[in-house]
Design a protein that fits this description.
Layout: E1 3-7, E2 10-12, E3 18-25, E4 34-39, E5 46-51, E6 57-59, E7 67-72, E8 77-82, E9 91-97, E10 102-103, E11 107-111
Parallel strand pairs: 2-11
Antiparallel strand pairs: 1-3, 3-8, 4-5, 4-9, 5-6, 7-8, 9-10, 9-11
Length: about 110
């Protein structure tokens, strides 16, 4: 059974940082691409960042220069380092396993003064 367990969300002030983690079990993590998506209430879920098995990355325009996706294959974990956070970044963030097509449980990120 493939499982994705997310952590690291919380409440931060504008300009602050958070580091999200997604730990994957039950699959050959190393060979699959992973993504981070976000969804705000009443809005579509949207891709924020993606990383391939080889480590190449792509970012949505709204996070370029602020967010960094990375993976540690030895720990079966993908990360999203979120810097210079803005109120419009407030959303539930989900990691996604492309190989199996399943989602993490979601972690709430709230950016507010």
């Amino acid at each position: 059974q493939v499982q994705l367990v997310e952590s690291g969300g919380g409440l931060v002030q504008p300009g602050g940082s958070l580091r999200l983690s997604c730990a994957v079990s039950g699959s050959f993590f190393r060979i699959y691409a992973m993504g981070w998506y976000r969804q705000a209430p009443g809005k579509q879920r949207e891709l924020a960042a993606r990383i391939t098995s080889g480590g190449s990355t792509k970012y949505a325009e709204f996070v370029k220069g602020r967010f960094n996706i990375s993976r540690d294959n030895a720990k079966n974990t993908v990360y999203l380092q979120m810097n210079s956070l803005k109120p419009e970044d407030t959303a539930v963030y989900y990691c996604y396993h492309e190989g199996v097509g399943i989602w993490g449980q979601g972690t709430q990120v709230t950016v507010s003064s």
